[in-house]
Amino acid sequence: MADLTSNFVGIKSPNPFWLASAPPTDKEYNVRRAFEAGWGGVVWKTLGSEGPPVVNVNGPRYGVVHGSDRRVLGLNNIELITDRDLYKNLEEIKRVKQDYPDRAIVVSLMVPCEEEAWKAILPLVEETGADGIELNFGCPHGMAERGMGSAVGQVPEYIEMVTSWCKKYYSKPVIVKLTPNITDVRKPAAAAQAGGADAVSLINTINSIISVDLDIMAPSPTIDGKGTHGGYCGPAVKPIAMNMVAEIARNPETSELPISGIGGITTWRDAAEYMVLGCGNVQVCTAAMTYGFKIVQEMISGLSEWMDEKGYSSTDDFVRQAVPNVTDWQFLNLNYVAKASINQDDCISCGRCYAACEDTSHQAIEMSADRKFSVIDSECVACNLCVEVCPVESCITMVQQEPGMIDPRTNKVVEEKHGDWTTHPNNPSAFAAE
Amino acid sequence: MAHSTSTLGIVSGRLDSELLEQNFEDLNAPLSKHEALVASDRCYFCHDAPCMTACPTSIDIPLFIRQIATGTIDASAKTILSQNIIGGMCARVCPTETLCEEACVREVAEGKPVEIGRLQRFATDNIMSKNVHPFDRKASSGKTIAVIGAGPAGLACAHKLATFGHDVIIYEAREKGGGLNEFGIAAYKSNDDFAQKELEWLLSIGGIKIEYGKKVGSEINLDQLQLDYDAIFIGMGLSGVNSLRCIGEELENVDNAVNFISELRQADSLLNVKVGRDVVVIGGGMTAVDAAVQSKLLGSQNVSLVYRRGKKDMSASIYEQDLATSKGVRIIYNATPLEVVKNNSTLNVKFGYTETIDSKLKQTGETFNLAANQVLKAIGQNLSEEINSLKISNGKIYVDQNGQTNISNIWAGGDCVTTGDDLTVTAVAQGRDAAIDINSQLMKQIKKEGQ
Question: What is the ipTM of this complex?
Answer without folding.
Answer: 0.82
